[in-house]
Amino acid sequence: MSMDSDGDLIDNQLLSRLGWWAFGLVLATVLVYALRGYLGWAVFGVFLYYMARPVARQLRQRGLSESTAAVITLGLVILPFVSILIVLASIAIIQLATLEATDFERIVETLFPDGLPETVPQTEEEVYPFVEDFTTDPTVGSIIEWGSGVLGAFLTAAYNLFITLLFAFFLVRDERRLARWFRSDIVGEGTRVDEFARAIDKGLSSVFFGYTLTILAIMILTGVIYALLNAIAPPGLAIPQVLLLAIVTGLASVIPLVGRSIVYAAVVVYLAVMAIQIGLTALWFPIAFYIIMGVFFDGIIRTYVRPSLSGRMFPTGLVLFAYILGPLAFGWYGIFLGPLLMVVATLFVQTELPRLLHGEAN
Q1: Which residues contact 237 (CB under 8 A, 6 or more apart)?
Q2: Membrane-crossing residues (predicted)?
Q3: Angle, in degrees to the nearest 10, between helices 242-252 and 259-278
């Protein structure tokens, strides 16, 4: 074969490869554009996969098939977990909706006996703007329009949630097959890209499973403790909005060192002011609240619960900013996409950027 023939063959191979790359780029662009509205639900599905994966792997180690393990995990882990999330969100919304302007006024007047600040809402219309809309336009049409919008949003969310559950199910069932395909056909076994992908997988497992389980455990435990404390509280003195406060306490746990302490301090101040109005003997309750929550409970969380569930793979500050800035940047699904991007960016800076800067071989 002549050199011209060899050159033509190489050119044809190069053109063929470039053509396939162009086709793949166009295909990827079309898919990203068509599925862009489902990005949040896809990220949520990845989050559910990492929540369910440890259980599915344990079941497979006990001899169950991949499909059986995935079905059991879907029924015993994913569906109950999603139900808990829905219940917690519903409780928060319901308790916020049932709050009245008098509740805010009573709390603020307790904390500010000299008068309400000008920035504090003092009427129901200021607290709930939609109340004014129904007051000024209480027509059947407006109510039907509002109900249709709520129903449409609910059906859309239910459909997207169903698709997300299916996505998580297939990720759990086919994870080993997908991992083998990715390592053997895409990046190669033992390559640097393979090592980087393994590190990302470990990081997402730490953040999604560990931190989320920690927050959920704190919500449940604090809700139980708050309810028990209210059962022994002096007459006229109680922790307000127990379930909503438990949710806030769990979410505040993402703030390192002081997150839950801020919540405890606010509750202690409120209970102390209320106790002084009832009688000095009632001050034992806010003191007991602080000892139980701020000393014993927080000590258990920091010493045993958080290290065993979330580990120490990433600095707490990075996780904090990922959870806080994610929703601000991307919307509701930013609470899942933010930590994902944080894991990828942090591992890239830690492992790959130094090699690129120092010119190490690939």
Answers
A1: 271, 274, 275, 278, 282, 285
A2: 20-50, 71-94, 150-172, 208-229, 235-255, 262-281, 287-305, 317-349
A3: 150
Q: Read off the tokens for 105.
A: 């006024």
Task: Write phi, then psi, for 180 (nearest 5 degrees).
Answer: -65, -45
Structure confidence at residue 127 (pLDDT): 47
Does the pTM surpass 0.70? The reply is no
pLDDT in tens, 273-300: 888 888 778 888 888 888 888 888 888 8
| pLDDT value of position 120 | 45
The residue type found at 100 is E
CA atoms of 362 and 356, how far apart (whole Å): 9
H/E segment holding residue 238: none
Q: How many CB atoms lie within 10 A of CB 103?
A: 13
Q: Which region among 69-73, 162-166, 216-220, 288-292 has the lowest average model confidence (pLDDT)?
A: 216-220
The per-residue pLDDT for 3 is 52
Residue whose tokens read 């056909």:
185
Closest CA to 294 of 319, 257, 241: 257
User: Is the per-residue pLDDT at 305 higher than 80?
Assistant: no
Give the C-alpha separation, 329 to 325, whole Å: 6
Whole-number Å distance between alpha carbons of 253 and 215? 7
Question: What is the spatial distance between Cα 227 and Cα 245, in angstroms, rounded to a whole number?
Answer: 11
Q: Report the C-alpha gap between 165 and 213 in whole angstroms.
A: 19
Contact 196, 343 (CB under 8 A): no
pLDDT class for 119, splitting at 50, 70, 90?
very low
Distances in Å between the Cα of 183 and the Cα atoms of 61, 87, 116, 134, 324 are 22, 39, 63, 59, 34
